[in-house]
Write a structure and sequence with these properties.
Strand order of the largest sheet: 1-3-6-7-2-8
Helix content: 55-70%
Distance between the termini: 55 Å
Number of strands: 11
């Protein structure tokens, strides 16, 4: 089996070979019984408009070898994505009346259609493999839904799919650990979001391993004051369990109830904890396990399913900061401390206080031991590129004593040593206390940073989640080169970590304590306000949306000023609006429009505003239309194509933007051909063809699209003319005539082409 696509291979076997054939067999047998004379025609009825397309696709898959079994009848060309329609249409004949809850046909049908919909939504990677394997969650959901469907239909093949699901759950596709075991599947956050490099705590780790090895003890807590490294210890232990893969455990899960961060006695609120009560905890748990649809079920249904899954798939569940669940969250504490330990899974909690009932099952965390603290200091010196040889016994003692051997404080004090002599740093630290010292240390670091690096740090900390490089660019508006240099500055100080591969791409996940500190230090600055505005535009923040009426009024007024040739007034109006709402995507888009209409046009200014609005995920078709038209007016075919492409990123399948992309490529091809770049010209023409074909497909033949379709047909004819395919040119004209014989553009274009190409012969 190809280890790179191990999950994909199992799912292909389970879905395409077992599930598909079994369901088709069920459909064929039951429809033949109900409609013996015309069961095939009955099966086609839900797909009459698309049957030819389905047949063509099936023939292609047979040519490529994806489907190799001989055809029994036309039902064999149907794929798993068609089962939903079949069962919805013929539920009375296909859904077993004795199956499901008490023989309730409606409930059984609803359950079957739900599972089929999940498979339909997740099946594409099976037919169109990507450059990465299916995730564990998606693969498990696929196979489990298939098993449920087949079980409900009474098909024996359900056992084979269940075997594949069990095989999937016990394997991760990661390299061997030295024997036949492999590291456990995990749902751990990026390491650097919790701890950069874990040091020491040998005795505490040994205690946790003794607990984990005890088959009768299924819950434990790591307890201690804030800033002492409880989360780091729990994370290090979870990673060891993942690597060692003790049987029968299959998963390591991490859930954070953190609604606040420790700041030397102060509380810093966190926007979006993983969960905050039992209902949200169960939803999060089910999502981590892969049961996303069920996460919307009732509380009792979710509780029962979660416990069933944790018993079927034993896991180490780490619940960070459980004591945040005070008041309304007490039922969640009860669930993790009493209910989950009744399953085959184990629970490790972190807390600032001893949870009732856990008094004898805790690991107490205090400051680092002298030996561990000194090792921690040396490790941070090495990470920050400082000379550890300067750490004599006296300096080590001062660093440890002034911070109480707290890993959190030690880390901040050592970063302060980067920007000033060690003795001065210690004096400044001890002259303050706790949180004030940390804020001072960060302030001195900020003083040493470039303006771009400060802006980037704010962008990385404005949200509670990891951010991609593209998102950092969108939040700051800085160039790729400027951001790369700024990241280098921040990574040298370990304020922003190296990127981690999260959610399918490289993301920067700032440590939770650093993020909270940055928010407190920078939270009242103009820079922070600007970055928050950009973040709100990107995320659709509710508070920003509440001002949409005011923004809309500003934009409408700006348009009226432009129509009255008062571009300067429109510019001043929109700039004033942007002072109040920095990076508002609509204001930026309209300001670009104002610059485009200036006399003469201020194209550079317009491009900058259009580009910024695009970076903030602008979904206004009109903005991209103005951007493209501005480039076309200057015969900037490449610029027009790029503007249309950016619009399609935010508005996929938009026929107008697809037409513009195809038209611009086609005009570029003409220019390339004129410069004797024939190969590049042919490539451009073929690319244009794809966009124009897609535009024609998506521009529905209605009155509103008449002119657009006319333009697309004309561009298609021109494009085939450039490829020298006379037959295709006249085929386009025939299609055009059949759809709109009275179109004056058709007549003029046909006359031009006949004069140029001659008759059809």
């Amino acid at each position: 089996m190809n280890s790179k696509f191990a999950n994909l291979t199992l799912c292909y076997e389970g879905i395409q070979r077992i599930y598909r054939n079994a369901v088709l067999g069920h459909v064929r047998a039951n429809l033949q019984l109900a409609f013996p004379a015309d069961y095939v025609e009955r099966a086609k009825r839900p797909f009459l408009k698309e049957w030819d397309t389905i047949k063509t696709a099936a023939e292609e898959r047979r040519r490529t070898g994806e489907l190799g079994t001989p055809l029994v009848d036309d039902l064999d060309i149907l794929g798993v994505n068609h089962f939903f329609n079949l069962f919805e249409t013929y539920a009375d004949h296909l859904v077993p009346k004795t199956a499901g809850s008490g023989g309730d046909l409606k409930k059984t049908k609803k359950a079957l259609l739900g599972w089929m919909q999940n498979i339909k939504a997740l099946r594409d990677p099976l037919s169109h493999p990507a450059e990465a394997d299916l995730s564990f969650e998606d693969a498990f959901v696929l196979l489990d839904c298939a098993r449920r469907v087949l079980t409900q239909l009474g098909r024996p093949e359900a056992v084979r799919v269940h075997e594949l699901a069990s095989q999937l759950a016990g394997r991760t596709g990661i390299a061997d650990t030295g024997d036949d075991r492999q590291p456990l599947e995990d749902r751990l956050p990026a390491r650097e979001a919790i701890v950069v490099r874990f040091v020491g705590r040998t005795e505490e780790l040994q205690q946790l391993h003794r607990w984990f090895d005890d088959p009768l003890s299924r819950r434990w807590a790591v307890v201690g004051a804030g800033g002492l490294g409880k989360s780091a210890l729990a994370y290090a232990f979870a990673e060891e369990i993942r690597r060692n893969a003790p049987r029968p455990f299959q998963l390591v899960l991490w859930m954070s109830a953190k609604a606040r961060r420790f700041e030397d006695g102060h509380v810093v609120s966190i926007e979006n904890p993983d969960f905050f009560d039992l209902d949200s905890a169960l939803s999060r748990l089910l999502s981590l396990l892969g049961w996303r649809e069920e996460a919307a079920s009732s509380l009792e249904t979710k509780r029962a399913l979660a416990l069933e899954l944790l018993d079927a798939f034993p896991a180490l569940v780490v619940v960070d900061d459980i004591d945040s669940l005070e008041g309304a969250g007490e039922d969640a504490i009860e669930f993790f401390t009493l209910s989950v330990p009744q399953t085959k899974s184990k629970v490790l909690l972190t807390s600032r206080r001893t949870i009732l009932g856990l008094g004898h099952t805790v690991t107490q965390v205090a400051g680092l031991s002298r030996e561990d603290a000194e090792a921690f200091v040396r490790s941070r010196y090495e990470l920050l590129g400082m000379d550890a040889k300067r750490l004599d016994a006296s300096l080590l003692k001062q660093l440890v004593d002034s911070t109480g051997a707290s890993p959190l404080y030690l880390e901040d004090l050592i970063r302060l040593v980067v920007v000033m002599p060690a003795k001065q740093a210690i004096q400044e630290w001890t002259a303050r206390s706790g949180d004030e010292a940390r804020r001072y240390a960060l302030g001195r670091e900020l003083d040493k940073l470039s303006s771009v690096a400060r802006e980037l740090l704010a962008a990385a900390c404005v949200t509670q989640r990891a951010v991609s490089f593209g998102e950092l660019q969108a939040l700051t508006g800085q160039s790729h080169e400027a951001l790369a240099a700024a990241l280098g500055e921040l990574q040298k100080l370990f304020l922003v970590p190296k990127p981690q591969f999260i959610d399918g791409e490289d993301r920067y996940d700032v440590g939770i304590n650093t993020r909270a500190l940055v928010q407190r230090v920078m939270g009242k600055t103009d820079l922070w306000r600007r970055i928050q505005g950009a973040h709100a535009s990107l995320s659709g923040d509710v508070r920003i949306r509440q001002g949409r009426e005011e923004v809309g009024a500003l934009c409408r007024k700006a348009v009226l000023l432009v129509r009255g040739d008062d571009q300067e007034g429109a510019e001043a109006l929109l700039k004033k609006g942007l002072e109040k709402r920095p990076n508002n995507v609509n204001l930026l888009a309209y300001l670009g429009f104002v610059y485009k209409t200036w006399r003469p046009p201020r194209r550079t200014d317009a491009r900058e505003r259009f580009q910024r609005a695009y970076e903030l995920k602008c979904r206004d078709k009109e903005m991209y239309k103005h951007w493209v038209r501005m480039e076309l007016d200057e015969d900037e075919w490449s610029g027009a194509f790029q503007a249309a492409e950016k619009g399609l990123e935010c508005l996929p399948k938009n026929p107008l933007l697809q037409y513009y992309a195809g038209y611009a490529k086609s005009r570029l091809a003409k220019e390339l051909a004129g410069g004797l770049h024939h190969e590049k010209a042919i490539e451009a023409v073929k690319a244009a063809q794809g966009y124009l074909d897609a535009a024609l497909l998506n521009a529905i033949p209605v009155a509103d699209h008449r002119k657009l379709r006319s333009d697309i047909y004309r561009a298609l004819a021109l494009n085939w003319e450039r490829l020298g395919d006379k037959a295709k040119v006249f085929a386009v004209l025939d299609g055009w005539r059949q759809e709109d014989p009275d179109d004056p553009n058709l007549r003029s274009e046909e006359e031009r082409l006949l004069a140029r190409l001659g008759d059809r012969a």
